[in-house]
Amino acid sequence: MAANLIARSVHDLTAAAWFGGSLMGAVGLNGAAAEAKDPAERTRLSALGWKKWAPVQAGAIGLHLLAGLALVGDNKTRVAKQEGVGALTVYKTAVTVLAAVATLYSGILGSKVGKLAEEGGQGATEPREGASKELKSAQRQLKILQWSLPVLSGAVIVMGAQHGEMQRPANVLKGLKN
């Protein structure tokens, strides 16, 4: 029981960090950086903030995946036999992997913006007239990703809550009877 409690806690806390960090970055960090007077500072400060957050985010994602594997291993009978649990596990895994890949790609794009920060921007993810095609492309993609990441990581949290609901005794019995 203690191992499951630890795995579940790590799984939930890391998903929360992933969601919260992504949302705060999009709203707070990128929003604040967009207010800088110097256009080069807008991109530089945003890139620096995301670079500082990246190790925490990567650690959260890695621990989330490990804890998820532990939970699936501990619940393998329910995953195999309780109606709906296996399918939800597959969907949640797919969304988690998609979110991890999107986060990694976001980091690659953020590094690109950081390297081109002196070109500046209207905002952290809004290109400026005269910026290179490379910077404009990275910023436009980041504008989409900055909102996709909280949506995807939030979906992981919601599916985790659904897994929790499926563990209620009445739901386990109902799922095993069918």
How many runs of DSSP E, i.e. beta strands? 0
The biggest sheet, with number of strands, parallel, antiparallel or mixed sense and barrel status, is: none
| End-to-end separation | 27 Å
Mean pLDDT: 93
Beta-strand portion reads: under 5%
Overall shape: elongated
Low-confidence stretches: none
Q: Rg to the nearest angstrom?
A: 20 Å
How many helices? The count is 6
Query: Can you write the helix and strand succession as a string?
Result: HHHHHH
The number of domains is 1
Helix-and-strand structural type = mainly alpha
Give the proportion of residues in helices.
over 70%
Keywords: Membrane, Transmembrane, Transmembrane helix
Transmembrane segments: 12-33, 53-73, 85-108
Descriptive overview:
- The chain has one domain.
- It is built from six helices and no strands.
- Helix 1 packs antiparallel against helix 2 (39-74), helix 1 runs antiparallel to helix 5 and helix 2 runs antiparallel to helix 4.
- With 178 residues, it is mainly alpha-helical.
Give the helices and strands, then pairings.
Layout: H1 2-33, H2 39-74, H3 76-81, H4 85-115, H5 133-166, H6 169-177
Helix pairs in contact: 1-2, 1-5, 2-4, 4-5
